[in-house]
Write a structure and sequence with these properties.
This protein is α+β, with helices and mostly antiparallel strands. Helix content is 28%, strand content 14%.
């Protein structure tokens, strides 16, 4: 299972801090970057699907992809 950070991201960094696998690179978060370049940043690789990032996101900008 993987997750995607949508354009609703406010760049708070909570997801990158909480991730036990360090799968979220906080250099790739933020509305402008996400909306214009990737149409949503996909969290892959080290992600183990625990969902911690989803639970901590204050604007619900992380969804299953």
């Amino acid at each position: 299972m993987s997750y995607r950070i949508t354009g609703d991201c406010i760049s708070c960094g909570s997801c990158s801090v909480i991730c036990p696998q360090q799968a979220v690179d906080d250099g790739y978060t933020g509305p402008a970057l996400i909306s214009s370049v990737w149409q949503g940043y996909h969290i892959t690789g080290a992600c183990n699907g625990c969902g911690s990032c989803v639970q901590v996101c204050p604007v619900e900008a992380i969804v299953r992809s």
